[in-house]
Write a structure and sequence with these properties.
- The chain has 396 residues and is α/β, with parallel strands linked by helices.
- It folds into two domains: 214 residues, Spore Coat Polysaccharide Biosynthesis Protein SpsA, Chain A (Alpha-Beta Complex), CATH 3.90.550; 133 residues, no CATH class.
- 57% of the residues lie in helices and 11% in strands.
- The protein contains twelve helices and nine strands.
- Strand 2, helix 3 and strand 3 form a beta-alpha-beta unit.
- The longest helix is centred in the last third of the chain and has 33 residues.
- Bound molecules: guanosine-5'-diphosphate-alpha-D-mannose (GDD) and manganese (II) ion.
- Manganese (II) ion binds next to loops.
């Protein structure tokens, strides 16, 4: 591998180590609260957190999104950046959160309400738990020791407890407050989740679908809003039952799907090799075209151009098709491209060494040695890119 490849990889590692945080805040008719919450986040978030706030507003009739825009214009030197996503219609809390998560760029994501029920002062502790313990999800919990709910009428408490019991018994959820609307997680754990995003309970869906994720609960005091009104109503309770039913069926099907993991894995490997083969064609044709059209171009240069084209087309096809990654954030995509090139370089060197070793030391026939070396190097390449470049579990 060349020195420049090495430095690309080192740079990417540095980029990925840089801590960053996305805070997703769904809003509907919260113009009276949103300024207060943005203000109190200002004192809770430090610059080192490198935080971005993503407000997802469903075209609130009270002009919440305009209030946020004004706020952004007038704020000097904030310790975080603010982005507002305006959706045309009211599509529900869970779906707003999913939209926010899709736009998030941080390594960690925090989800919280905008009505001051969820204290921003708890965020640093949530982030620290994510960074320093081995958990993937941190739930701010009303129902662990030290947590509480204030301001809710008996009826609302009852609904919350009932919903919690349903989740615990029906879905085998172990934690105390799976209904919490205040939680943080490492962003990569939701990469492969296809959300139903029905109703209010997006955390529950993450808990069920991000299998293997480690969860930790920390206490907080939920304070009911003093301004504006809750958007919880009867239809959201019905949505809840529907979403639990779907998650229940999902849990059942995952068990049968376990066998299908091998099918998924093989189909991805198949795509990866198809892309590899397409790269050979691109390489050949591009080199040939450059060699033929620019007749005074040295054939080695033409070949180099062919290599660059084919590596790039391999990368793009693998990103979009093989690993179904549609996030084209510039930094992220460049980091992936760097890793992809780095692994190709390592693979090439490894293949050379292996062929040499097999032919010279084991006295194997060249064509057999070449076949073995290509097979081993390409499997390695596939696995490395799956795990590190596209951040998937190896066996999935
Ligand atoms: N964009 C968008 N679209 N935002 C919405 C929508 C919607 O359709 N519906 C609600 N929101 C926003 C509200 O503006 C608020 O910021 C947040 O979602 C929570 O809505 P509330 O109506 O205040 O919910 P709640 O107080 O009854 O319940 C909350 O707290 C509980 C305890 O943590 C929710 O977060 C529950 O999920 C949670 O169990
Ligand atoms: Mn609320």
């Amino acid at each position: 591998m060349t020195e420049s490849n090495l430095s690309i990889i080192q740079k990417e590692v540095l980029i990925s180590r840089k801590r960053s945080l996305s805070i997703v805040i769904p809003t509907y008719n919260e113009s009276k609260n949103i300024v207060k919450i943005l203000d109190s986040l200002r004192s809770a978030l430090t610059r080192e957190m490198n935080a971005e706030i993503i407000v997802v507003d469903d075209n609130s009739p009270d002009g919440t999104s305009n209030t946020v825009e004004e706020y952004v214009k007038n704020s000097k030197n904030p310790s975080y950046s603010i982005q507002i996503i305006r959706r045309e219609d009211k599509r529900g809390l869970s779906s707003a959160i999913v939209t926010g998560i899709e736009h998030a760029k941080g390594d960690a994501v925090v989800v919280m309400d905008s009505d001051l029920s969820h204290p921003p002062q708890t965020i640093p502790q949530m982030v620290e738990e994510l960074q320093n313990s081995d958990c993937d999800i941190v739930v701010a919990s009303r129902y662990v020791k030290g947590g509480s709910v204030s301001g809710w009428p008996f009826k609302r408490k009852l609904i919350s407890k009932g919903a919690t019991k349903i989740a615990q018994h029906g879905l085998g959820i172990k934690i105390k407050d799976p209904m919490s609307g205040f939680f943080a997680f490492k962003r990569h754990i939701v990469n492969n989740i296809k959300f139903d995003a029905i109703g209010y309970k997006i955390l529950l869906e993450i808990l069920v679908k991000a299998r293997g994720a480690k969860v930790k609960e920390i206490p907080y005091n939920f304070i009911d809003r003093t301004t504006g009104s809750s958007k919880m109503d009867f239809s959201i309770c019905v949505d809840y039952l529907q979403s639990v039913w779907r998650l229940y069926r999902y849990g059942k099907s995952v068990k049968t799907n376990e066998r299908r993991t091998s099918v998924h894995f093989l189909s991805k490997a198949g795509r990866f090799y198809t892309v590899g083969a397409s790269g050979l064609l691109v390489n050949y044709f591009v080199s040939f075209m450059f060699g033929a059209v620019l007749s005074n171009l040295w054939y080695i240069y033409a070949t180099m151009i062919g290599i660059v084209f084919s590596m790039s087309s391999n990368f793009i096809l693998n990103k979009i098709w093989t690993f179904e990654d549609r996030n084209f954030d510039t930094k992220r995509t460049l980091a992936q491209y760097g890793l992809f090139l780095g692994f190709s370089g390592i693979g090439a060197v490894f293949q050379l060494l292996l062929v040499y070793g097999l032919v010279e030391l084991r006295h194997l026939n060249y064509s057999i040695a070449l076949f073995l070396a290509v097979a081993i190097a390409s499997v390695g390449n596939f696995l490395l890119n799956k795990k590190w470049t596209f951040q998937e579990k190896v066996w999935s």
